[in-house]
Design a protein that fits this description.
alpha+beta; 5 helices; 31% helix
Length: 190
């Protein structure tokens, strides 16, 4: 091979190495969530579940929620139910803090995988988490919808059951014979 060909090969290898380095730098793990804020606590909870660390998510629940489900049970349900693979990007949409309570609205935008002829399709799932300050730290009292199923007690209670009452009209009595009373037995003529 001549010098020109060696130059092309060396340049190609350098570009590949540079590309790999850029990918590694860009894919660096994000900075840890700020647990002093409601949105940081929710972000840490979601990241813990999605990265297979449910014990870290359990530590972010409120005191009452932790008494409603044991840590082992929470981990079992989180591990058994959430298998990863959720696609899409989770974004914090709004944060509302009122005293020692907070509400965090978040959304997950995912691709729908529709036919490419119509262009890419996306859908957005909006969720809300509720938090309280407990012992100086933000703790989740109602997890976001996608992560609420780990304990029945953690879910928002269902509305009261609806009782349907149907009335059955009384059965009509047999027609009264002329000149007699209903239920009277006719007497034979003599």
């Amino acid at each position: 091979m001549d010098r020109f060909t060696w130059g092309i090969v060396a340049g190609t290898i350098a570009l590949v190495v540079l590309g790999i380095a850029v990918v590694l730098v860009v894919r660096r793990s994000p900075s840890p969530a700020d647990l002093t804020t409601p949105e940081g606590t929710v972000r840490a909870y979601v990241e813990a579940i999605e990265s297979g660390r449910p014990e870290d998510a359990w530590n972010l629940l409120g005191e009452r929620q932790q008494t409603d489900v044991t840590k082992d049970e929470f981990i079992r349900r989180a591990t058994g139910t959430y298998r990863g693979g959720r696609d899409g990007r989770v974004a914090i949409d709004a944060v509302e803090v009122t005293g020692a309570s907070a509400r965090v609205d978040l959304s997950r935008t995912s691709s729908g995988g529709g036919p490419p002829i119509f262009g890419p399709s996306t859908y957005t799932n909006r969720m809300t988490a509720r938090l309280e300050q407990q012992r100086g730290q933000w703790r989740i009292t109602v997890p976001p919808d996608e992560y609420r199923y780990f304990s029945e007690r953690l879910t928002v209670p269902a509305p009261p059951s609806v009782i349907v009452i149907t009335a059955t009209p009384p059965t009509p009595s047999p027609a009264t014979p002329p000149g007699g009373s209903a239920g009277a037995t006719p007497t034979p003529a003599r």
